[in-house]
Design goal:
Blueprint (H helix, E strand, L loop, with lengths): L15 E5 L4 H12 L3 E6 L2 H14 L4 E6 L5 H9 L8 E4 L17 H23 L5 E5 L22 H26 L4 E5 L8 H9 L2 H13 L4 H4 L1 H8 L8 E3 L11 E2 L9 H15 L8
Parallel strand pairs: 1-2, 1-4, 2-3, 4-5, 5-6, 6-7
Antiparallel strand pairs: 7-8
Length: 309
């Protein structure tokens, strides 16, 4: 991994990638760099207008890029199913589960789930399961990369209170959703190994990267002081999105990435440098916890991974 940058991404010609939340921040950079290296990239975005703007910017910044926008709202399982049903083409080599929300005031998804758990975990769980046949059919080199966070270290997942009905705390809810991302990757990797499938499930985190996630909740609530504080952090302390996206790009394309790898920047993003295997909480490697979350996720979403049962 020493010195690895976006210029080290292998040629992606002939490969197809889906990137969720590709209209801005880390998702935008991820999509752009994959397209720059020859991949056909589907920008899976909740806001069609912002998705179209991102498509045009990518075409301008990476001449010859093959990109298209497809609507996807991870807070609505009907939208997730519609995206999967309408997916164009038989090939899918890369699924980048990047989109997310962070530290929101209490909200529910269209299906009644706590928003952070519903979008960050359940939406991506359902999407991956629905697209799994195409990913498996792609053969060697296909990968699912789910973006977690070093904030997962703050809270494990409580299987008895997935929606935090016993008391909502926004940062704890975010941390739980990011632990859920790692437990999902752990169990998916285990099932893929058991099935002898060539598809690789890995996870990544950007460290402290400058994105609109930090200011979204403050804008939503009109907390201008908090919004300014977060903006100052983004400007002077956070990594730029180009650097924050490197762990995801490494996990998606670099040779030697293994099942259940977790890739991040040095010292959880507090130091600049090339992507490396990141430290993770021991609970995110618990087979029991991963299986419990998997069973609950199948029940809540109605999506079952028949090929990996």
């Amino acid at each position: 991994m020493k010195g690895w940058t976006a210029s080290d991404i292998p040629d992606q010609t002939g490969r197809t990638a889906v990137v969720t939340g590709a209209n801005s921040g880390l998702g935008y950079v991820t999509a752009r760099e994959l397209a720059r290296r020859g991949a056909h990239v589907v920008l899976a975005c909740r806001d069609a207008g912002r998705g179209k703007d991102a498509e045009e910017r990518i075409r301008a910044e990476a001449p010859g890029a093959v990109v298209r926008v497809a609507p996807l709202d991870l807070a609505d399982l009907a939208s997730v199913r519609a995206f999967a049903a309408g997916y164009e083409g038989d090939r899918l080599d890369l699924l980048i589960n990047n989109a997310g929300v962070m530290a929101l005031p209490y909200r529910k998804t269209a299906d009644g789930f706590e928003m952070q758990f519903g979008v960050n975990h359940l939406g991506h769980f359902a999407l991956t399961g629905l697209l799994l046949p195409k990913l498996l059919a792609a053969g060697a080199g296909a990968r699912v990369v789910t973006v977690s966070s070093f904030m997962h270290l703050l809270s494990t997942v409580d299987p008895a209170d997935l929606s935090m009905q016993r008391g909502y705390r926004r940062w704890a809810a975010y941390a739980r959703s990011k632990s859920a991302n790692l437990l999902f990757t752990h169990e998916l990797a285990r099932r893929l190994r058991s099935a002898g499938a060539p598809l690789v499930a890995a996870a990544a985190h950007p460290g402290y990267a400058s994105t609109n996630l930090q200011t979204a909740a403050a804008k939503m609530e009109g907390r201008r002081g908090t919004e300014r504080f977060m903006d100052i952090g983004n400007r002077f302390f956070a990594q730029p999105p180009e650097r924050g996206a490197l762990p995801t790009l490494y996990a998606a394309t670099a040779p030697g990435v293994r099942q259940d790898d977790y890739v991040g920047p040095p010292l959880q993003g507090l130091l600049p440098g090339a992507p490396t295997r990141a430290a993770r909480a021991k609970w995110t490697r618990s087979d029991k916890a991963a299986r419990q979350l998997w069973a609950a996720s199948e029940h809540l979403t109605g999506v079952r991974y028949a090929a990996l049962a």
